[in-house]
Amino acid sequence: MPHHRFDWHEHVKDVEDEYRAARFALNELSAALERQSGLLRKGGLVRAHFRKAHANLEGTYLVRLFASFEAALRSYDRARHNDPERHENASVLIDTIGGRRGQGVSDADRKGAHAVRRVRNYWAHESDASPEPMTIAEARGRLQKYLSWLPEQWG
């Protein structure tokens, strides 16, 4: 994986762009279904599958978006500790890389990354606690802001 912050910014943005492409495709399929109601049967699908895909798309991509951010943090953390096997959970990475005593990442940006993590946990772990509503664009912005505090390169 890359050791340049810019590459990680691009990786996170690519996931958002994939989401936008998938959302566009689902919207187009929705319009096509209005005209041709039997279209899903060609793929062995039913409308319930389509409705679930439509409803869960943003959550699915929020999980992927956070995974790309988490991979960036792991890359940086492993390089910083010179330990390619090092593994911390995402919450710990956000806090330790961000610095807890006013050094490093601003408190607001650290809290923003944690908010996205809670949304990811809701979708990935089917949590009962409903997080604050968050769009893909808002999540990407919060994660990119946190990443902007990292050095330009590492490793």
Can you put this structure into words, describing what you see?
This protein is mostly helical. It has one domain (5-147). It is built from 5 helices and no strands. It has helices at 5-35, 47-81, 90-98, 107-124, 136-147. α4 (107-124) crosses α5. The chain is elongated, with a radius of gyration of 18 Å. The termini are close together. The mean pLDDT is 91.
Query: Uncertain regions: pLDDT < 50 for 5+ in a row?
Result: none
Compute the CA-based radius of gyration: 18 Å
Give the beta-strand count: 0
Structural category is mainly alpha
What general form does the structure show?
elongated
What share of residues is helical? 55-70%
SSE topology sketch:
Elements lengths: L4 H31 L11 H35 L8 H9 L8 H18 L11 H12 L8
Which tags fit this structure?
mainly alpha; 5 helices; elongated
Task: Give the structure's gist in a few sentences.
The protein is mainly alpha-helical. The chain has helices at residues 5-35, 47-81, 90-98, 107-124, 136-147.
